[in-house]
């Protein structure tokens, strides 16, 4: 055996390489089957970053379809509710430069809104219920409807179908609970030479 | 003498405590109006249980606790409730919050109250409830409901009770003077706490060595009680809960853990006094010791202040010079908050009102660029890297901020204090903390929305599928029926019937169906008779109405009514004609 290998080194090497190739090929094939990833993970990751308002302002019927579209190469700046922070996050994830928000799809709102139905004007047509992507409107035919404010994503989709225009988008009021410290303003835009009349504070003064 | 440990970092700002302890604790005249905010503590705001116009007595409950983490509020003096509405309170946002305004009557009449003198025979549960009902929340600054701290649960046995008398912030002497004058009552309060917690092995009073008088006042009372008074070198911020625990026990609490997880409970000494008053004397928390200090005030001293007293009332009795005052601060100079109005009330957590002159606390210097000197890292008592946090905060890099343990920051301000570039570091951290908490909340919301959207999608798909299935089933049934008809026709063909599928065949089938559907003549007659009866009634009603209105109504209305009557009459005639026709037809058929 050893002799024959020694006599036919090229053949022996060939057999060894082919043998290894088959072995590793089988191993890889098995692993690919065994650890198969269901669905496209990048779609899930992009979907995680989208604001889930399901408003359709991007031109897709919901955030998931837009995530799928981004994964297959669509622009990442079509989501006004997410705004620049969402664009930045997606750009970070996909390792692409972050563009500005595409104004064609709407502007970034400063305040979050929720739908509010003026209940005495509601005629109970159920059209808004059918339009709501997150089932946040309660009601039945010919009975008054109302919005469950906690579930409302502020997507606007119920306003258009209402035949009596009794739905308002109200800004969410910011109370003490929502308030948090703002970042300091105008910091670090002063350079030392600009500080006319500056006197070094005494340690005593600073302390107190 | 117990050994103590030394915390990392810390700073030594000028103490400025001597000004306010020259006089004993004073009392202020009862202000004309008291403003009791409904949220003076951590947790859910209390809910007012009085109405505008209600007469209240001192100590009467005016607001109920709502939910597990909340405390009730009590009337600080007797008087009348004159408003329950949003008023400016001491909050960094400058926003208003719901308050109960009491116009005082000056009589200061107590409601009937009774304490438990021999608390040692009362069950810990009863005592904890008394403390909760007295509205006691941590008076050191955080305002966490004390009763919750005292109920750590059976799976967390407490072996160490720590009383926090550190009072490390400059200027504040509220606890110091309270200890000097009320040491005996405080020790009774500690006895109550110890009883509630099942007599922990170690009871430690942690106090900085810059209060020798207070230590001397405590010493005679602690003899033979098992309580140790532990003094340690003065350094800011030794009074932080985690810092004090480390100084006294050498144990470091991991981030996110409560002292109770390590078998410890840490209570402020002012709270201890309030607990004694609540349990032994039955008095709810309606006043506290507050330091009034700063060079803009002629009188620097501590006052026993009613909760809800406007800051302006305190200033008015302290020879306050508005022009000399650079800003009003509630709390100390390190962690306090600047007040935008002097009308805000004193709350349960207000230990100090500071009215400094311009030389004491000058206006903020403009911030300059960070020079990476690293002094902040040396000063940080939580061993964080303030510089890095500052960069990440500016970059809004939330992941890195959390990785650098931003949430372990106690916002003591030591880093800002030492910063040679005057960077308001703490404000950056607070802002970032807020942003991160908001982002977390939004994440939870968006996940919830996604779930609901996916469920909605699924439901719509299911509905579509169901509809499709129904349609398919109908189609199938129709085909089957056709096949049956075809088969029947096939058999009939052998007989005399017309050819299957021929027009005659279909017409015959349709006629047969129509005949089967037709109602019997009797039923039809009954139907006609009913419609006649209805029409007659309408005519009658219209006539009645017309008769009734004839006298006084205008021409227009009469015309309308006449038209209605005409219409009804016509309908009646039609119905009668139909019936007659039907009867005729029927009788012909019978013939």
Describe this structure as you would to a colleague:
The complex is a heterodimer of chains A (208) and B (591). Chain A has 208 residues and is mainly alpha-helical. Among the domains of chain A are: 41-105, 3-methyladenine DNA Glycosylase II, Chain A, domain 3 (Orthogonal Bundle), CATH 1.10.15.40; 111-173, Alpha-Beta Plaits (2-Layer Sandwich), CATH 3.30.70. Chain A is built from 7 helices and 4 strands. In chain A, a hairpin with a 7-residue loop joins β2 (137-138) and β3 (146-147). Chain B has 591 residues and is an alpha/beta fold. Chain B has 3 domains: 18-354, Rossmann fold, CATH 3.40.50; 375-435, no CATH class; 521-590, Helix Hairpins, CATH 1.10.287. Chain B is built from 15 helices and 17 strands. A 6-stranded mixed sheet of chain B has the order 1-14-13-17-15-16. In chain B, α3 (174-196) links the parallel β9 and β10. Chains A and B meet through α7 of A and α12 of B.
CATH architecture group name of the largest domain in chain B: 3-Layer(aba) Sandwich
Structural class of chain A: mainly alpha
Number of helices of chain A: 7
Shape of chain A: elongated
Write down the CATH class of the largest domain in chain B: Alpha Beta
Any idea of the CATH topology of one domain in chain A?
3-methyladenine DNA Glycosylase II, Chain A, domain 3
CATH class of one domain in chain A: Mainly Alpha
Nearest-angstrom radius of gyration of chain B? Answer: 41 Å
Global mean pLDDT of chain A: 82
Radius of gyration of chain A, CA atoms, in whole angstroms: 30 Å
Structural class of chain B: alpha/beta
Q: What is the strand tally of chain A?
A: 4
CATH-assigned fold name of the largest domain in chain B? Rossmann fold
Oligomeric state of shown chains: heterodimer
What is the CA-CA span between the terminal residues of chain A?
92 Å
Helix fraction of chain B, binned, reads 40-55%
Helix content of chain A: 25-40%
Neighbour order of strands in the largest sheet of chain B: 1-14-13-17-15-16
Beta-strand share of residues of chain B: 5-15%
């Amino acid at each position: 055996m050893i002799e024959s290998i020694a006599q036919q080194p090229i053949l022996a090497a060939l057999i060894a390489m082919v043998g290894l190739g088959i072995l590793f090929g089988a191993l890889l094939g098995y692993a690919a089957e065994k650890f198969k990833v269901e669905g496209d993970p990048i779609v899930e990751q992009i979907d995680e970053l989208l604001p889930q308002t399901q408003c359709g302002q991007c031109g897709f019927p919901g955030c998931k379809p837009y995530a799928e579209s981004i994964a297959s190469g669509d622009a990442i700046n079509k989501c006004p509710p997410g705004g620049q922070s969402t664009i930045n996050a997606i750009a970070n994830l996909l390792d692409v430069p972050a563009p500005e928000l595409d104004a064609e799809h709407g502007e970034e709102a400063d305040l979050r809104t929720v739908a509010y139905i003026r209940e005495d004007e509601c005629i109970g047509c159920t059209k808004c219920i059918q339009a709501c992507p997150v089932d946040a409107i309660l009601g039945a035919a010919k009975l008054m409807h109302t919005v469950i404010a906690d579930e409302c994503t502020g997507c606007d989709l119920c306003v258009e179908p209402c035949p009596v225009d009794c739905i308002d988008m109200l800004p969410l009021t910011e109370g003490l609970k929502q308030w948090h410290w703002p970042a300091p303003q105008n910091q670090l835009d002063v350079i030392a030479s600009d500080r006319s009349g500056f006197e070094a504070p005494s340690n005593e003064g600073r302390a107190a | 003498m117990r050994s103590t440990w030394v915390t990392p970092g810390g700073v030594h700002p000028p103490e400025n405590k001597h000004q306010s302890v020259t006089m004993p604790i004073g009392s202020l005249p009862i202000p004309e109006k008291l403003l009791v905010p409904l949220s003076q503590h951590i947790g859910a705001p209390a809910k007012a249980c009085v109405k505008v116009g209600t007469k209240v007595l001192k100590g009467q409950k005016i607001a109920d606790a709502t939910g597990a983490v909340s405390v009730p509020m009590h009337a600080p003096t007797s008087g009348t409730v004159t408003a329950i509405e949003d008023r400016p309170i001491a909050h960094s946002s400058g926003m208003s919050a719901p308050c109960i305004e009491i116009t005082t009557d000056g009589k200061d009449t107590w409601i009937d109250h009774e304490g438990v003198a021999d608390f040692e025979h009362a069950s810990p549960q009863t005592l904890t409830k008394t403390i909760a009902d007295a509205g006691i929340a941590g008076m050191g600054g955080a305002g966490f409901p004390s009763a919750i701290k005292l109920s750590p649960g059976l799976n967390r046995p407490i072996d160490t009770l720590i009383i926090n008398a550190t009072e490390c912030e400059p200027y504040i002497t509220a606890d110091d003077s309270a200890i000097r004058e009320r040491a005996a009552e405080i020790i009774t309060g500690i006895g109550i706490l110890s009883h509630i917690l099942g007599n922990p092995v170690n009871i430690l009073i942690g106090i900085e060595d810059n209060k020798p008088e207070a230590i001397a006042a405590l010493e005679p009372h602690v003899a033979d009680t098992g309580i140790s008074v532990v003094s340690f070198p003065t350094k800011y911020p030794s009074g932080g809960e985690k810092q004090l625990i480390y100084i006294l026990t050498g144990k470091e609490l991991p981030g996110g853990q409560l002292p109770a997880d390590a078998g410890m409970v840490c209570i402020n000494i002012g709270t201890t006094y309030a607990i004694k008053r609540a349990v032994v004397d039955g008095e709810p928390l309606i006043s506290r010791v507050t330091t009034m200090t700063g060079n803009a005030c002629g009188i620097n001293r501590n006052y026993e202040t009613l909760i809800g007293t406007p800051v302006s009332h305190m200033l008015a009795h302290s020879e306050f010079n508005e022009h000399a005052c650079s800003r009003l601060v509630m709390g100390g100079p390190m962690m306090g908050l600047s007040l935008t109005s002097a009308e805000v009330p004193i709350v349960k957590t207000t230990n100090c009102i500071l009215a400094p002159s311009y030389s004491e606390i000058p206006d903020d210097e403009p911030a300059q660029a960070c020079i990476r000197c690293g002094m902040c890292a040396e000063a940080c008592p939580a061993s964080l890297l303030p510089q890095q946090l500052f960069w990440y905060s500016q970059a809004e890099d939330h992941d890195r901020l959390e990785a650098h343990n931003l949430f372990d920051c106690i916002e003591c301000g030591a880093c800002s204090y030492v910063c040679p570039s005057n960077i308001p570091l703490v404000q950056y951290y607070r802002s970032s903390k807020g942003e991160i908490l908001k982002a977390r909340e939004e994440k939870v919301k968006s996940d919830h929305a996604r779930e609901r959207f996916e469920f909605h999608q699924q439901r719509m798909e299911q509905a579509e599928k169901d509809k499709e299935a129904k349609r398919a089933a109908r189609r199938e049934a129709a085909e089957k029926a056709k096949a049956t008809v075809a088969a029947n026709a096939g058999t009939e063909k052998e007989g005399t019937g017309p050819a299957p599928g021929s027009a005659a065949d279909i017409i015959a089938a349709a006629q047969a169906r129509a005949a089967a559907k037709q109602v019997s003549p009797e039923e039809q007659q009954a139907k006609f008779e009913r419609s006649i009866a209805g029409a007659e009634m309408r005519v009658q009603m219209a006539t009645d109405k017309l008769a009734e209105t004839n006298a006084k109504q205008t021409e227009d209305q009469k015309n309308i009514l006449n038209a209605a009557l005409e219409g009804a009459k016509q309908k009646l005639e039609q119905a009668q004609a139909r019936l007659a026709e039907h009867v005729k037809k029927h009788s012909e058929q019978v013939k």
